[in-house]
Amino acid sequence: MKNRNRLIRFIIAGTLLILILACRRSEQTAPAEPPLDTEIPTTTPSDDQEQESTPAGPVTSSAGCEDNMQFISDVSIPDGYILNANEAFIKTWRIQNTGNCDWSGYRLVFESGEPMGTMEQAIPDTPAGEVLDISVEMTSPGGSGDYTGRWEVIAEEGYRLGGLTCVISVPSADDLGEDSPDPDQQAGDEESVPNAPSNLTISGWGMDTFSVTWQDNSDNEDGFKIRRVGAGWLKNPTGPNETSFDIHFTPCGETYEYRVVAFNAAGNSEPSNTIVADGPVCE
């Protein structure tokens, strides 16, 4: 009887030992708990990266050539040119294809500011190294103020090569009178106003640019200013002792009148004689 009880206890103990060993082996071979889902951080391009996606020349095109553009000059309507409200004009930029890509299918596209004219137009096919003039028909805004429009030269592949601007000034009604004060003038009483210049004439007549010349009759001027009659002072007055000034562009079919004054801290001289500038014949 005793032997039988011992056998039963041995069997029970052995069974428990087997179960314990089996559980431990199961824990050792069980796959690890899968990690909790974690959010993978995403990166968004910075402002600098976004700007780099549309660089302004030089750019390597898909054809492997280097594309670039350089602004040379304002052929017509220099920055600060004065125009009447709602006045039609033509803005012409001179640029150069300074890369080694031949341009074909390129466009001039309005980018920001005051449009004043076309929003997009084709650029003529231009071989590498060539200079060309780009002209846009525009109309000045209806209200007084200073206005700037910006356009971009866009390649056929869509990248931009650089910007072009048109900056004009539209005077207010108070500025249109001949006796309106000069905003650049600083009043003073320490010296007398200069003598009036005389013999104002047109020289170097051309389609886009002409020069006016005059006789300097004073020795105390700080410079000379040219007024377009009925519109206001042209920007960028000349220095003392100058006797000529380049005027850019008179619209086709239009006639403008100009006169010149000498100025110093005491004020403006009497105006010179008036000259008439006729624009080219409209085609």
Describe this structure in words.
- The protein is mainly beta and 283 residues long.
- It has two domains: 59-170, Immunoglobulins (Immunoglobulin-like); 173-278, Immunoglobulin-like.
- Helices cover 12% and strands 37% of the residues.
- The protein has two helices and 18 strands.
- The chain has helices at 2-29, 47-52, and strands at residues 59-60, 66-67, 69-74, 81-82, 88-97, 107-113, 120-122, 131-139, 145-154, 160-170, 198-203, 209-215, 223-228, 232-233, 244-248, 255-264, 267-268, 275-278.
- The strands form five sheets. The chain has a five-stranded mixed β-sheet with strand order 4-10-9-6-7, with no helix packed on it.
Features:
Immunoglobulin-like, 2 helices, 5-stranded antiparallel beta sheet, elongated, mainly beta, 18 strands, 2 domains, 37% strand
